[in-house]
Design goal:
single chain, alpha/beta, Rossmann fold, 6-stranded parallel sheet, 16 helices, 13 strands
């Protein structure tokens, strides 16, 4: 299928194009949508202060919730329809476990957003238009609340699932109401990984009426990478990580790895990402005392990170997360031809392939960080796993954002009606 379709698409995001960091990988999808659909509409649920530019042909709608969230929730809490949805959502809690305050809060928030979708005059006009159209929810949580009404009005529907919108991490985190309804009305369920598809397809989770497919995200191509050194003796190591600083990301273990490697060779660890650095202050201090040079860059645009990759000889990228979908940060490292050391969780093993793009680590890190450091040092010797890897080739085969966006676009055009 080539050329431009007569169809229109509505893309529902959490807050893109607002913000500067999250959801940045949707950019190449919008580029492809603008090229192939007659018109692209973009509806963010939430507004943030910063705003990114959009491709020509993408029409940005006003967000459902402005920066003043208190006003949004107060206004919608006054509506009887919100409370009808709230009590309906609570019924799902009783099926899962006892009703808790955190889950009740989630139910109320989701009820407010669902009513906001149903009250949106612009969304109603779009769904009632005579154009062939498809609604694409970029996440399986709040943006997917637009899917039931879109299905009822006859639009094609697609939901993309990542990880946090798919798999619950605990008794409170990850709970979203109306899951069963979504499984019944979404025509295409798109997953970033085989692991996510397998989880969603388990019979115990109920009947899924629509198609379920792996439609990978992928990373943008930032051009020819820096040529990697093929022999490293002695071994000055430059390791990079990129993630939020949170317990699930286990950045403290990365700091501990830097400390262990510093006992054997010169190590510089660069971390890109924000949130509470104080949570890992102790581990960072220990790494520095062990002799590692630690550089915390904070939040940076992906363009700046990719320029860093091309200006520096990065030995390997490291991700020791407890949970993942398929991290875009890993795909971006592969684009720069940087081998990856990562825990074998979620869909990560689908792109971190031993000897081809990097090295996998057991979640428990058997033998501890000292054993992992020894394994990495061996893998950096001539002929070792990290030295023989061709990360850029794996990116080209699995993670090319432009090509993957083209596959998704063809699927969405086929859904439009």
């Amino acid at each position: 299928m080539t050329g431009r379709s007569d169809s229109e698409i509505l893309v529902v995001t959490t807050h893109y194009p607002y913000g500067t960091i999250e959801e940045n990988w949707i950019g190449h999808e919008l580029d492809e949508f603008a090229r192939r659909f007659s018109k692209v509409h973009l509806l963010p649920v939430k507004e943030l202060k910063e705003r990114r530019s959009l491709p020509e042909g993408v029409e940005l709608w006003a967000p459902l919730a402005t920066i003043n969230r208190l006003r949004f929730f107060t206004w919608h809490a006054l509506m009887p329809r919100t409370w009808r949805y709230f009590f309906d959502a609570l019924k799902e809690c009783s099926d899962l476990s006892r009703i808790t305050i955190p889950r009740a809060i989630v139910c109320l928030k989701f009820s407010c957003y669902r009513v906001a979708f149903e009250r949106s005059a612009r969304l109603k006009r779009f769904l009632l238009s005579k154009k062939q159209k498809v609604v694409y929810a970029y996440w399986g949580h709040i943006p997917a609340l637009a899917i039931p009404m879109s299905h009822r009005r006859g639009a094609g529907t697609c939901v993309r699932f990542h990880r946090t919108d798919l798999i619950a991490d605990g008794p409170e985190q990850g709970f979203f109401p109306w899951r069963r309804e979504l499984r019944e009305v979404a025509e295409l369920n798109a997953f970033v990984s085989e692991q996510g598809l397998a989880f969603y397809s388990e019979p115990s989770r109920g009947v899924c009426s629509g198609r379920c497919e792996v439609l990978r995200l992928g990373a943008r191509d930032f051009g020819p990478p820096r040529r990697r050194q093929q022999a490293r003796a002695p071994l000055p190591i430059t390791m990079v990580s990129a993630s939020w600083i949170s317990p699930i990301k286990r950045v403290d273990l990365i700091a501990g790895l830097a400390a262990q490697l510093a006992r054997h060779t010169s190590v510089t660890w660069h971390h890109f990402g924000g949130k509470r650095a104080a949570d890992v202050d102790g581990a960072i201090k220990a790494a520095r005392e062990a002799g590692a040079d630690v550089v915390l860059h904070g939040l940076v645009p992906v363009e700046r990170l990719q320029q860093f990759y091309r200006d520096n000889d990065v030995t390997f990228f490291v991700n020791l997360s407890e949970h993942e979908g398929i991290p875009v940060s890993i795909m971006e490292a592969l684009n720069a031809d940087i081998p990856v050391v990562a825990t074998a969780v979620g869909g990560t093993p689908e792109v971190v392939i031993e000897g081809r793009s990097g090295m996998l680590v057991d979640l428990r890190i058997d033998g501890g960080l000292a054993a992992l450091a020894a394994r990495i040092l061996a893998a950096l010797q001539p002929g070792g796993l990290l030295m023989v890897a061709s990360p850029r080739e794996v990116w080209e085969g699995l993670c090319d954002g432009h090509r993957n966006a083209g596959v998704l676009t063809r699927e969405l055009i086929a859904l439009a009606r």
